[in-house]
Amino acid sequence: MGFDTGQGKSKNHMSSRIRLVITGAAALSFLVSVVPAFSTVIHVPGDQLSIQAGVDAAASGDTVLVAAGTYFEIIEMKGGVSLRSETGLADCVTIDGDGWALGGVVQFTDLSGSPLLEGFTITNGGHHGLEIYRTNAVIRNCLITENRTNTYG
User: Fold this and answer.
1) Residue 135 near residue 108, CB atoms below 8 Å
2) Contact (CB, 8 A) for 106 and 133
3) How many other CB atoms are found less than 10 A from the CB of residue 4?
4) Per-residue pLDDT tens for 25-36?
5) How far apart are CA 143 and CA 85, in angstroms?
6) CA proximity to 78, closest of 54, 46, 94
7) Cα–Cα distance between 98 and 105 in angstroms, integer?
């Protein structure tokens, strides 16, 4: 009959504790890598008065959601930002360049993160409706109409 000092039990208990800590750390690491960072929805004109102010306030992964109406402005997009009309349909929101846009009414220039433009009518650009240069922009459900250009088609 042997004498039990509890050391065997302690080693097994310690080994279980180490496995639990390693398993917990691995699970936390997995969650951090799988769960996306929080994104923000910026409402125009609720949170910001203009579409450009909404885009300027946005970070990559954020959405700028625009209420129905006509907005007279030129938009310079940011990388990774989604710009959407509240219905996602082109007849909901019009961005009107008021005939004086030197570039496009909506401009995507040297951006990363595939910015999105969805559900707008783009009109009255003095140079052109959209300007997309060295950017993987995604354009969905948009109507680009009545814009002028004397170069680049």
Assistant:
1) yes
2) no
3) 8
4) 444 444 444 445
5) 12
6) 54
7) 9
Half-sphere exposure of 83 (CA within 13 A, CB side): 30
Q: Name residues whose C-beta falls within 8 Å of residue 123's C-beta, 6 or more positions apart in sequence.
A: 94, 95, 96, 97, 105, 129, 144, 145, 146, 147
What is the largest distance, in Å, between two alpha-carbon atoms of the chain?
A: 101
How is residue 113 written in tokens?
Answer: 């993160």
Contact 101, 79 (CB under 8 A): no
Q: Are 67 and 92 in contact (CB under 8 A)?
A: no
64-100 per-position pLDDT tens digit: 999 999 999 999 999 999 999 999 999 999 999 988 7
* Residue 62, amino acid: D
pTM, full prediction? 0.73
| Run of H or E including 44 | strand 41-44
